[in-house]
Amino acid sequence: MSSSEQLLAGKVAVVTGGGRGIGREVALAMAAQGASVVVNDVGAALSGAAEEVRPADEVVAEIQAAGGQAVASTDSVAQWDSAQRIVQTAVDTFGRVDILVNNAGILRDNIFHKMQPEEFEAVIQVHLLGGFYMSRAAAEHFRRQEGGSYVHMTSTAGLIGNVGQANYMAAKMGIVGLSRALSQDLQRFNIRSNCIAPFADTRMTRSVVVKEALREARDKRISAWRPQGIAELSVALCSDACKDISGQIFGARGGEVFVFSQPRPVRSVHKDGGWTAEGLSKVLPKFQSVYAPVSEIVMTWDSIE
Ligand SMILES: NC(=O)c1ccc[n+]([C@@H]2O[C@H](COP(=O)([O-])OP(=O)(O)OC[C@H]3O[C@@H](n4cnc5c(N)ncnc54)[C@H](O)[C@@H]3O)[C@@H](O)[C@H]2O)c1
Question: Which pLDDT does position 209 carry in this prediction?
């Protein structure tokens, strides 16, 4: 592909959690489309625990072997100072930053009534606070350059629901709010922000607890969800061709790409002078047909005590 045909020619991208799974594919795809890439990954276990591995280095080597430009970063997204260093790596190495993909993530699943404060806090720290720290660090440069594009990985676990993931659901819905805020606050500087709810066969998806009887069917289903599909969508969203798309939530699953609706009122009732609790207690049960179901429970914990 000549550089004039590359969708991200001349752009600089930071991909967090870029050493494995979806992030790895995003980093490879962005580099193949001409971006210089900061591949950021702490090399954590799925729980976030430290491990003696540096997957970011391997992805950088792959990009360079294919003729692309990349640099590794092993700082964590989950602290303000280290997030600043990740973005600074892009500026120091490549002179600018045009794209931030907030993808780094961990899981600490537990049924809600057993969830420990540290399990809740750890997941919020990486996904939501990390998303803020990284976005804030990039915003300074995007603003100065008068342009930039954010992609944040949310999840249908947040948008729709999942058992045993209160921490992750809260974080992933928080990211949707963060993305919407960025799209509104920064629109005036030609900066845009979108979310993707991925479906991909990674260690994260395979770790989600399902009933024994459903496991084989689940594994077969997710094996069709290639993470490359999410990478292609990320590249497209960050290309100039999609410069007018912001504040949206996309999904990607196998060969399918979809746009999610966003909450708007679906029914209203008005009463002059305002409602009393007694009045509402009679009216609200009549709206059953418009209430969202508590959730289709896609994955189920084996035993909930
Ligand atoms: N796989 C899916 O189907 C799916 C579904 C919904 C959402 N997501 C989201 O997509 C993103 C990627 O998930 P994945 O399935 O590729 O997971 P993964 O576990 O394969 O990759 C996540 C990467 O993030 C890195 N990481 C963790 N904490 C970090 C930190 N503090 N700083 C920097 N890097 C850190 C890990 O080392 C790992 O390499 C996550 O945000 C996840 O919540 C994935």
Answer: 73
